[in-house]
Amino acid sequence: MMKRRNLGPIAIAAAVIALGACYGTQEPAAASTGAAPAVAQAAAPAMPTQVEAVTFGMNSAEEGERLYGRECAFCHVGRNTGTIMLQKRLPPGTPAQLHERTNLPAAYVRLVVRNGLVNMPPLSRAELSDADLDLIAQWLAAGRSR
Predict the structure, then answer these.
(1) Which candidate, 12, 91, 135, 144, has a CA 20 to 30 Å from the CA of 30?
(2) Is residue 4 part of a domain?
(3) 113: domain range?
């Protein structure tokens, strides 16, 4: 009788190596073809670390910012799901971190939070009260004057 091999660890290792290769540095197409590079873009500002994301607004004097940090920052501050997905859809130069935006009306924020949008699931009143959502939406909308 043949002894069966457990290929699970090998398959996992191969997947990790393959995924790691996807995150390596990529050379611009111009460098590989010898063509002149397109207009150089300014380097994007550094994203907050995960620790900065989960502690965002914690010591703020503004309740809307503290609530945004507690309820929204896990996805919308730093390089997290919300910012990654938004960056793919937004025009170049538009910040994907919501707190950096200056064009978010409070009514739009409320609408998206309650109904969801693309990858963002809707949040119920049990998850986030109307009063807390209003404070977050007003704080984000005030980004124009912050």
Answers:
(1) 91
(2) no
(3) 50-144
pTM of this structure: 0.65
Q: pLDDT 10s digit of each residue in the chain, 146 long?
A: 555 555 555 545 444 454 444 444 444 444 445 554 454 455 556 788 888 888 898 999 999 999 999 999 999 999 999 999 999 999 999 999 999 999 999 999 999 999 999 989 999 999 999 999 999 999 999 986 55
Q: DSSP states of 28-96 as a string?
A: -HHHHHTPPP-PPPPPPPPPPPHHHHHTTTTT-S-HHHHHHHHHTHHHHSSSSHHHHHHHHHSPTT--S
- Whether 11 is in a domain gets the answer no
Nearest to 136 by CA among 104, 96, 94, 103: 104
**CATH code, domain with 55:** 1.10.760.10
How far, in Å, CA of 140 to CA of 101, rounded? Answer: 8
CA dist 42 → 21, 25, 46, 52, 93 (Å): 26, 18, 12, 24, 10
